[in-house]
Amino acid sequence: MSEKLPRAKPNQHDLEVAADWFSQLRDGDAGADKVENWKKWLSADCRHQSAWEQIIAITGRFDAIQEQHDEQRLGEILTERQNKRINRRYFLGGMAAIAVTSGVGWIHYRYDSIQGLARHATADHATHVGQIKALKNYYGYRVWLNTSSAVRQSIAN
Fold it and tell me: Predicted confidence band at 70 (pLDDT cuts at 50, 70, 90)?
């Protein structure tokens, strides 16, 4: 086992080599021989170990920032999806309202048409669209039926 060497301040070159080692090892393609060479470099000089610790500390700060950014992005994604879901609900609610309104309108139209047909069928006198008719009722009064109208005369004793 290697002993810990006393701490020394690394120079620029040692920091650059430590950063290079870090990128090679973090890449994921590092084989056993590369890891062994890194260990040899690390234990060769106390400045190497100090440089390595500084690189790890710096990348740790970046990892924390990246994690925070990832959490913020995740929050944005969740909010975005929730807004889409709310928008979808509004859209579907609007479509349902249109369908219900259309259905009620159609039923009212059909019901009114059926009522009109029933009135025309049971009336004593009726006119069709575009037709005007003059009548005399039982009491001698003159009655004008306008277009699409119907009248039922009753005789009261």
Answer: low
CA 117-122-123 angle, 5° bins: 95
Q: What is the C-alpha to C-alpha distance for residues 121 and 137, in angstroms, rounded to an integer?
A: 19
Residue 127 DSSP SS3 = coil
From its phi and psi, is residue 88 left (phi > 0), alpha (psi between -120 and 50) or beta?
alpha
* Spatial distance between the Cα atoms of 93 and 87, rounded to a whole number of angstroms: 10
- Mean pLDDT value of segment 30-55: 84
Region of 130 please: left (phi>0), alpha (psi -120 to 50) or beta: left
Two tokens at 147?
């277009």
